[in-house]
Write a structure and sequence with these properties.
Helix content: 25-40%
Oligomer: single chain
Structural class: alpha/beta
Shape: globular
Strand content: 5-15%
Number of helices: 15
Order of helices and strands: HHHHEEEHHEHEHEEHEHEEEHHHEHEEEH
Radius of gyration: 24 Å
Length: about 475
């Protein structure tokens, strides 16, 4: 059965139309709603008559807006059935074959990438950026450290969080992963050592390893960091760096407490270990809670990496390094050996978003609903899987009752669901009894994905021979807020 949206629902989403030609404004609003996923693909739009009544516009306005949508590829008409949402080129064009193995079919659900679609604020930021662009066109266009307006916006955001920062401490990069590459390029020795969490962001681990660093893992459980074990590893391994994700750790979702930050910050400083702290998920607190102060408040040697990719949109390739002033020269030279700066329009859009402040309430509400739906679906259909309900971030880290995450991920390709098994997040392998499930898809997709996962898991678990008696779990009971 085809999904549909009522005229009243669509009127609420459209809101107040911008000034100008009515049908153009409506077509633009509908294009944005379809493009960012607030109206899913394949949904039947309301009749022209009913939408005209709901919006208080003429039927001619609605007719011309729908025609503009069809002409641009954001809708298709079916004789005798109505007008349905679409995207130019179809669903496949919205996915990269490198990120989604085997391509993206009509029924494909990608849970391998913990990144959400763009909220409406992103389009508004790009529009504002284009208005600001003429100011920069008379110059050469190279800003290796970043536009001053963006450096100021990033520095101001740290000031609000209680970390004194001047714009000169900010180096703008094409994302947090690029920022990590610049740091290790500038400061790491080919025979150096780095402490790294396990599980952790796999691309960061590969970046450190590619720089010639020997990695020393410190394990995280479902409840977070083993501080005693971590400090023992620091004392024994004497690493040069510690790569940490203290805010909604990827993939576990854990948050390091203020006491833990103080304790670890002192330990790292005492042993001359430079913290490289990834704050990519920091802004995604979904339950209205106050976040601990930045790790750099507890260790002045901290090199902080930030990005707008998770909080706003992965296509906005803007990140940064916040560094202690004595390191800025080395980092800037390393940055210039890779490229000469992030595109100006992207930086202007990023500055506009940061000046707005935090992630919008609407975006937080949507992510919270998706998280809650995913947790409820897993608890209902996979009751022997364990997880700690995360208070933010973008993913659920699930512990299976036995090994089999890799087999499950392989089986899911047949069912057209992409998932990432635990070993991907382990620098030295292992963790095959864990799987990461992002909630960065619409609720209907998440529920359907869990249904398919549960069917595949029952088949795999039946053949699993290594299930210890101690791992027979009781079903998870959730109290949904």
């Amino acid at each position: 059965m085809k999904e549909s949206i009522t005229a009243r629902q669509l009127s609420t989403l459209v809101g107040t139309l911008p000034a100008g030609t009515a049908y153009v404004g409506l077509a633009d609003q509908l294009t944005l709603l379809i493009g960012d996923g607030r109206i899913p693909l394949g949904v039947r739009l309301p009749s022209e008559r009913s939408l005209a009544a709901a919006l208080g516009r003429s039927r001619t306005t609605i007719t011309r807006a729908y025609l503009a949508l069809r002409d641009s590829g954001y809708a298709r008409a079916t004789q005798g059935s109505g007008t349905y949402t679409a995207v130019p080129g179809g669903r496949r064009q919205a996915h990269d074959r490198v990120l989604v193995a085997g391509g993206a079919g009509e029924d494909w659900i990608d849970l391998s990438c913990a990144a959400d679609s763009a909220p409406a604020e992103v389009m508004a930021a790009y529009t504002a950026a284009l208005s600001d662009l003429p100011t920069y066109l008379s110059g050469h266009g190279y800003f290796p450290s970043g536009l001053r307006v963006l450096q100021e916006a990033v520095a101001a955001a740290y000031q609000v969080r209680g970390l004194p920062t001047v714009p000169e401490q900010i180096i703008v990069t094409p994302g947090a992963l690029s920022a990590a590459s610049i740091v290790v390029r500038a400061l790491a020795s080919r025979r150096g050592h780095a402490l790294i969490e396990s599980p952790t962001y796999p691309n960061a681990a590969e970046t450190l390893r590619a720089a010639g660093l020997t990695l020393h893992e410190t394990p995280l459980g479902l409840t977070g960091w083993d501080m005693a074990g971590m400090m023992h590893t620091i004392q024994q391994a004497r690493p040069d760096f510690a790569y940490l994700v203290p805010d909604f750790q990827n993939p576990t979702g854990a948050v390091m407490t203020t006491d833990q930050r103080q304790q670890l910050g002192r330990c790292l400083q005492a042993h001359g270990v430079a913290p490289i702290v990834d704050e990519t998920h920091q802004a995604l607190a979904l339950d209205g809670q106050a976040m601990p102060a930045p790790f750099a408040c507890f260790n002045p040697d901290t090199i902080t990496l930030g990005s707008l990719s998770k909080a706003f949109w992965g296509g906005l390739r803007v990140g940064w390094i916040r560094a202690p002033q004595p390191l800025l020269g080395s980092l800037t030279r390393a940055r210039m050996s890779l490229d000469l700066g992030v595109p100006i329009v992207e930086q202007l859009a990023a500055a506009h978003l940061l000046r707005q402040g935090t992630v919008s309430p609407g975006q937080i509400q949507r992510l919270r609903a998706q998280r809650d739906a995913l947790m409820q679906a897993v608890a209902t259909h996979l009751p022997d899987w364990r997880f700690v309900p995360p208070a933010g971030g973008l993913a659920l880290w699930c512990e299976l009752p036995c090994r089999g995450a890799t087999a499950l991920a392989a089986a899911m390709t047949v069912k057209q669901v992409a998932v990432t098994p635990g070993p991907v997040f382990s620098p030295d392998g292992g963790l095959d009894a864990f799987i990461r499930l992002p909630w960065s898809r619409p609720v209907a997709d998440l529920r359907q994905a869990v249904d398919r996962i549960a069917l595949a898991w029952r088949s795999i678990a039946t053949h699993a021979l290594d299930l210890p008696a101690s791992r027979q779990h009781k079903p998870i009971r959730l109290v949904m807020a």
